Amino acid sequence: MSDKLQNATMLMPPDSATAGPSHAQPPQRHPDGRSAETGSDASSNERHLGSRLQGTQKRLFRESVWVVGGRLLGIGTAIAINVVLARVLPPADVGVFFLLASILTFAGFMAMFGLNAGMVRFVSERIGLNDVAGAQAVLRQGTKVAVASILTGSLICWGFLHFAGEQVFGVTNLAVLAPLVALSVLGSATIQLAASLLRSFHDSRLSILLTGQFGGPLCNLLFIGSTVAVSRWIVPSLEQVMVFCTISLCLLIPVAIISVQKIARSRLAEIEPSSTPSSLLPMSTLLIVCLPLMLTQGLSYITGQADIWIGGAIVDHEQLALYAAARRLMLLIGMPMQLVNLTVIASIAELRAQGRLQDLQRILRSAATFAAVVAIAVCIPIMIFPAQIAAFIFGPFYADGAMVLRILCIGQLVFVCVGAAELTLMMSGQHMKALSINIFTSISLFISGVLMTQQWGIVGLAIAWTSIVSLQCIGFCLSARWSVGVWTVMDVRVLRTGREILAAVRAKFKKANNIGSLE
Hints:
Number of domains: 2
Structural class: mainly alpha
Number of helices: 19
Helix content: over 70%
Oligomer: single chain
Largest sheet: none
């Protein structure tokens, strides 16, 4: 895509400083060269900019509280799913389930056609410019594309598993499993797209409950409840577990759709429409932007998850279960960065549309720093006691994956410390650069992963994944700096303000308690 076409898809109005007539009068200056603008006007502008940044930080603080609480619930329920499945299914079936779950998640990403990032970006930009009509146009156009893409993605997933699943991965009984996975893709893609749209309206309370690999904490609770209830009477099979997963996802589809409709109508009604003409979004622009976003997300997911597919095609299902269990524990380290992404995704497009790059960099680096601190705290016990932790959560069989777990944790730490670099590229119109990096790393992972798995088994696969993901994250970080103009990597200097932040949090809770006692 040419630079001119990229700029055309940004849907950003020209800056007021450059949009005016060329004969505009320059500001008056004193003989000594100083501007004639009074000190009171300058201080007023500084206070205005400071209040805008403070308002953004307050909103992010409120959202982060909900995101952290909801994500902790999601982590707890996801761990509970792993614990339950490891105890009701034999290791070979656990490996197959994790393989199908990986395929399901990838197909769900592709079925969204990049709308989970594209629509959030365009809606957030329109909201940031008080363009209500433009935001409504984005929602209408995006809904049409979403219906077609999600149905198409579900059918393609069914066809692939039905005709190639046994030959590629050695999975049997696909006459039952393939339709269940396809229906799960339909539910997962719909729920995740709805959760993304809720974040564009800064509604973190419900969006976080719908965010996750299997539809979020609400879906996880339904899945766990049905599996545990049935396991009290019979030993469930892999097919029955997939039925529970599919039902849990499909039940939440109407909840997600109705929630987006109500919250979008409410939020847009609160915005005072701008006096400037609305820049309605053409369908062609949406498709041009979302296609590379879909490819970027798909290739990024391949780099992050293709090791499961490589393992499923080369090693036996018991070894795959060991590797998949280690990956599940490794994801605990990356959870803080996922919280950051969920919190700042809408603000990236909004702040950039307003030209506030310094504020954006400050928020991104601060968030990455605190996420890295939490991730390191989680990583230390996992690196010291990997076998004991794996055996405690999954069972004694999974203690043999300790070495794999240690290797995977290194790559996950790099992912967290780099920050939301890829997301910044995608939400800033630089998705083609992210796509280029993902193409290179995906090809590299497939080549190195296959060769090293054939040579050293799941340990070689872990080394290949960690190396490629680390290079990918560094590439995203450098590209965000060169293309967008902001650093996203953690900044240890932010830790110096930790006491001030903790004091502010204590003051907020103390004030809330005082108000509650007065009432």
